[in-house]
Amino acid sequence: MVSSSQKPPVEILSPIVSSQDLGWESSIVVEEFKQPPGVVESGTNNEHMICLCLATRPNRIWQTLGDRTHVGLYTKGDITITPAQVHCSYRTDNEDHYLQITIAPQFLKQVATEVINSDPSRLELISEFRVRNPQIQQLAMMLRGELYQGNSGVGQFYVESLANALMVNLLRSHSATKPQVAVYQGGLSDRKILQATDYINDHLTQSIKLEDLAAYLGISRFHFSRLFKKSTGISPHQYVMQQRIELAKQLLKKADVPIADIANDCGFNSQSHLGKYFRAMTGMTPRAYRKDQLC
Fold first, then answer.
1. Per-residue model confidence (pLDDT) at position 1
2. Fewest CB atoms within 10 Å of the CB: 1, 41, 64, 250?
3. Which residues is 100 bridged to in the sheet?
4. What is the dihedral of CA 107, 117, 166, 57, to 10 degrees?
5. In Å, how far are 1, 12, 38, 95, 100 from 70, measured between CA atoms?
6. Domain 17-174 carries which CATH code?
7. What's the whole-number mean pLDDT along residues 10-37?
8. Smallest Cα–Cα separation from 125: which of 72, 133, 184?
9. Which architecture characterizes domain 183-295 according to CATH?
10. Per-residue pLDDT tens for 270-295?
11. Which part of the chain has CATH 1.10.10.60?
């Protein structure tokens, strides 16, 4: 252990990759780090934090969260949860590799209010060392996958859906009150489905936000995603992508419209972004599809 009289200086690390560089409009920040050995970080954060171990080899770590201390081997898949305003310190024997998800407390409170009907003033996350949670791990890795896709990823709608699901699992498994998520037996009404699909099709050229769509329908974001999938058989972000591809198909039948312009008109970040998902859904490139249609 590092004695109080010989504490090494705190080192501020730069992430390998960060969602802040991608312009995600989300109440979470997803970042990946590689931490050199022997470095101590100590302080109190204003946000909640989830750290998922990505290291391929076991690594001994010293951690303090509030008045609790843990020393032990961390392996890939181990999770640490640090609530906001809890003082923490950390030291590693060898190079550490982890995914860090920073969560705005107000976002977690909003999900607790909307989804679980919980009093946000009574919300209390539990500090956790080296826990396993397959659902949180899977959601974190899906967010990491989107992080590495950069501007070629599925997009904001998908990120928001993952973030909401992550918050629900965090509340359900790692809060002091162990709230139960409300379960709805039915799906959306026909009227709500038509409202949702009309909204999506009217905004295909824009960045569609789950929060805006759910608010338009008067439903919480989490419940909207679940009810939409129950009613239609696909998730909202899958429906958005399907409709964008269908719009692209129609525009590709016009020989005088550049494919780069079509990508922009269909809400894709670039021609390559359109090509990636067009190929995945049709088995053809946009150029090949156009040629086939114009023959």
1. 37
2. 1
3. 31, 51
4. 100
5. 12, 22, 16, 18, 19
6. 2.60.120.10
7. 84
8. 133
9. Orthogonal Bundle (1.10)
10. 898 899 889 999 999 999 999 888 77
11. 183-295
- Is residue 28's pLDDT more than 90? yes
What pLDDT is recorded for position 248? Answer: 93
Between CA 164 and CA 167 the distance in angstroms is 5
Pick the residue with more confidence: 208 or 183? 208
Contacts of 110 (CB under 8 A, 6+ apart): 120
Mean pLDDT across 143-165: 84
pLDDT of residue 288: 92
What the block records as the tokens of 35 is 């931490």
266 CA to centre of own chain: 23
Q: How confident is the model at residue 179 (pLDDT cuts 50, 70, 90)?
A: low
Determine phi and psi for 170, rounding to 5 degrees.
-65, -45
**Looking at the predicted structure, is the pLDDT value of residue 168 above 50?**
yes
- The upper half-sphere exposure of residue 34, i.e. CA atoms within 13 Å in the direction of its Cβ, equals 5
